[in-house]
Specification:
This is Lipoprotein. It comes from Hyalangium minutum. The protein is mostly helical and about 60 residues long. The protein is about 25% helix and about 0% strand. It has 1 helix and no strands. The longest helix has 16 residues, at about 1-15. The radius of gyration is 33 Å and the shape is elongated. The protein starts with a helix and ends in a 46-residue tail after the last helix.
Length: about 60
């Protein structure tokens, strides 16, 4: 008996979950024609930043 109730509840929940919730007239929409060419992004060949390690001057020890 419990199994039959569980199956019935599952089927009822499944049937309501599979419905679409689109507004009226949404199925009559027309796609945009010719949206235009997308911009092309290029990546530079050199990585950003300095070409060599940055060396800071070393402070002389106080003594």
């Amino acid at each position: 008996m419990r199994r039959a109730v569980l199956i019935a509840v599952s089927l009822a929940a499944l049937s309501t979950a599979c419905r679409t919730t689109q507004p009226q007239g949404a199925d009559n929409q027309v796609p945009i024609d010719n949206p235009g060419q997308e911009s092309i992004q290029t990546v530079p060949a050199e990585p950003p930043g300095p070409g060599s390690p940055i060396t800071a001057p070393v402070d002389a020890p106080k003594g």
